[in-house]
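Feature request disguised as a bug report, sorry. It would help if multi-protein outputs had a clear separator. Right now it looks like this:
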Amino acid sequence: MTEPAPSQPAFVLVRPQMGENIGAAARAMWNFGLDRMRLVAPRDGWPNPAAGAMASGAGRLLDQAGLFDDLGGAIADCTYVMATTARTRGLTKPVFSPQHAMAEAAARIARGERVAVLFGPERAGLENEDVARANTLISVPVNPEFPSLNLAQCVLLCAYDWRRVTAEVVAERVDMAGADWAELAEIERLADHYEERLEAAGFFFPEDKVARMKTNLRNLWSRMPLTRADVRMLHGVMRQMVRWSGRG
């Protein structure tokens, strides 16, 4: 019976050199919910204590990582392969941005395909022989005068874009910290309080500008996203100011 296709791509580190970078890559993957790591001929052997120390909570990925002698074995079960690169290769291939690449990976995986993403060794990246095995290239839009990315940084960028295209990401939110938004009636009472006290203090002047000043003040309150705690505090500020002014 054929094993069901996985729900995420395999990230394949090809001939990685430093254990620390393997550990950092594992940590970056797990930050964004990816846990299918494969290693091809790591320079310093495997397992590597430096990788575990750097993984910082993502050690499970290292324990479960597939270990292969060559790239062919690492991608033998895949139907679609993407290769990260920071330089031109003289090979005719589609070139995707990381976000588009991860969207393509997600679509193919949803259709039951097995996708791998290749990351080259730290010194010079993937060799052309590695890239020739890939269906598509992934190119990060970096500074052309300094295109070199650390291995774990490149993994992080792709993992982040995988998360962006497969998870519901809220563009903006407000953490209420246990507070509730103030209702309109509460804001109206606050506006009345300030208007009454400011009028008593002679703030609204000259006469021909009073109506406009009051309108602007009301508009100010309506623009402010106030919680009930904010409203209570602002009432308290005005009451305290009135008490202090009466001592003069």
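(second protein starts here, but nothing in the output says so)
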Amino acid sequence: MATDPLGIAEARSQLGTLVARAVHGHQPTTIRRSTTERAVLISEADYEELLRARRELEAGHVAEAITAHARGEREMMMTYDSKEALYADLGLPTPGERS
């Protein structure tokens, strides 16, 4: 269930409750600092699940790219100067970059 974002001062005053809600109820809370700066408070377990899902999605993209290359449908560089170059060639955001 989505709720309206909380201002940072209000979130600070309710932090214990918000953490308990995230951990025990798996309910995320969006916190806004301004109209453009927002963050989401979630449990560590939910965060780990999101990271796991992202890795699986990225692995699927890599497998697809390798299969397409093997069929001759995609050109790929065979060596990379950096991790960023590899990710760019595969069409993936670099780790830490917003996808």
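Even a blank line would do. Unrelated, but nice: The chain has a mean pLDDT of 88.
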